[in-house]
Amino acid sequence: MKQILLIDREFGAGGSTIAAALAARLNWKLFDEELTQEIARIANIPADVCRKREGRKDPFLHRLINLVWRGSFDRNLPSPDLAILDTDCLVSIIQRVIEQTAEKRPCIMVGRGAPYFLRDRTDTLCVFLYASRDLKYHRVLKRVGSEAEAVELVDNMDEDRRKFVKHYFGHEWPHRNFFHAMFNTGIGDDKTVEAILELLSAVNQREEAAKT
Question: Are 79 and 45 in contact (CB under 8 A)?
Answer without folding.
Answer: yes
